[in-house]
Amino acid sequence: MFEGAHTALVTPFRDDRFDEAAFERLIEFQIEGGISGIVPVGTTGESPTLDHDEHNRVISLAVQAARGRCKVIAGTGSNSTAEAISLTVEAEKAGADASLLVLPYYNKPSQEGLYRHFRAIAEATRLPIILYSIPGRAGIEIGVETVRRLAEDCANIVAIKEAGGSVDRVSRLRQALPDSFEILSGDDGLTLPFIAAGAIGVISVASNAIPAQVSALVKAALEGDAARARQLHEQWYPLFRDLFIEPNPVPIKTLLAWQGKIGGEVRLPLCEMSDANAAILRATATKLALLPYA
To answer: What's the pLDDT tens digit per position in 224-252?
Structure first.
């Protein structure tokens, strides 16, 4: 269902307002690059600083712009179960193909609380649901046993975006879950080893700027072309690394702005990159021939 490369889209801003034209251009660039799906308003899309109307508009426009040419996986997670249900219901009305649900952040629920949270959302929608475990931002993970319970009890919870940085955890998930339950890498730099351990693709930050290249890496890995997959991983790893030298999505928005695709605005409490880190990213982007004037 979710095999391939999917882009966790940035949300472009101009004068602190959603830049719809730039967003539509970015989606066209993704589709031209052969991306399998797009993820509007994930955490890369600065979901914490969008109000509800903006959040729903970004998803609606993504559906309209994609026109069925790739999957639209709407980011509808929240640390409030009621809010997550509301956002997911609206995404379903807008025509999204699936929902990506980040685990609740800051309030640190127990595993039983997580189970009840995700089950309540699943019961409120017919959309296929991708769980999103990212302990580095949430302070907790969705336990393997909790994922197993949810997969068993909720027919529309069908996949997980795994961003815990552990190949061992991918193996443990694969052992605990049916073959039909899909695992997606949540970290560009770990896509290749995660696929080797049983993942079927990635939800990528880097593909905002290099959709064709990330798609090619995933395709080679899934087809068992180890030499080609490793070559692409090694070629693009410096970018995968440097896109996280400051909080996401600041570096990827900076790179896209240098490429002339969007403005580089982010919303507070995020801010522009430091000069030192921007120089590191620019050097990497220049070496990889990603800047139009380099």
So the answer is: 999 999 999 999 999 999 999 999 999 99
Model pLDDT for residues 46-84, shown as the tens digit of each residue = 999 999 999 999 999 999 999 999 999 999 999 999 999
Domain annotation covers residue 109: yes
Q: Is residue 48 a part of any domain in this protein?
A: yes
Question: What's the CATH number where 180 sits?
Answer: 3.20.20.70
Let me know if residue 267 belongs to a domain. no
Q: Is residue 132 annotated as part of the catalytic site, yes or no?
A: yes
What is the three-state SS of the chain? CCCEEEEECCCCEECCEECHHHHHHHHHHHHHCCCCEEECCCHHHCHHHCCHHHHHHHHHHHHHHHCCCCEEEEECCCCCHHHHHHHHHHHHHHCCCEEEEECCCCCCCCHHHHHHHHHHHHHCCCCCEEEEECHHHHCCCCCHHHHHHHHHHCCCEEEEEECCCCHHHHHHHHHHCCCCCEEEECCHHHHHHHHHCCCCEEEECHHHCCHHHHHHHHHHHHCCCHHHHHHHHHHHHHHHHHCCCCCCCHHHHHHHHHCCCCCCCCCCCCCCCCHHHHHHHHHHHHHCCCCCCC
Entry pTM: 0.96
**84 belongs to a structural domain:** yes
Tell me the per-residue pLDDT of 179-218, one tens digit each, with 9 for 90 and over: 999 999 999 999 999 999 999 999 999 999 999 999 999 9
CA neighbor of 10 nearest in space, from 60, 70, 62: 62
Structural domain count of the chain: 1
From the list 71, 105, 108, 132, the catalytic residue is 132
Range of the structural domain that residue 22 is part of: 4-223
Residue carrying structure tokens 């400051």: 246
Catalytic hit among 161, 219, 253, 287: 161
